[in-house]
Write a structure and sequence with these properties.
Layout lengths: L11 H6 L1 H12 L1 H8 L3 H10 L5 H25 L1
Helix pairs in contact: 2-3
Amino acid sequence: MFHPEKDIIFRIEHFKQHRPIAGTFFNCLTNLNKFVAYEQRDPFMIKNEMTENPDYSEWDRFAHHEYIRLALEEENAENVLKI
C-alpha cells in the first residue's frame, strides 16, 4: 500500500515504488468499470492463471480473455439465428 508522509499528498516516487498498485490506483480514480472488475475478481483464479502460464504478459492474458469472450458471443449469435 501507499504510505505517503502526508495523507493527501502522493508523489511520483510512491507510484514508482509500487507499480502494480499504481495501475489499480489510477484505474479506480478514472474508470468505474475497471474498478468494479477489480473488486469482483477472484484472486484464486488469477493465481491459477499465473501458475499455468507464467510466461504470459498482462496483454497476453487480456487478449486470451477477449478472444474467448468474442468467440462465445459469436457462437450465441449463430444459435439465435438458427432458431
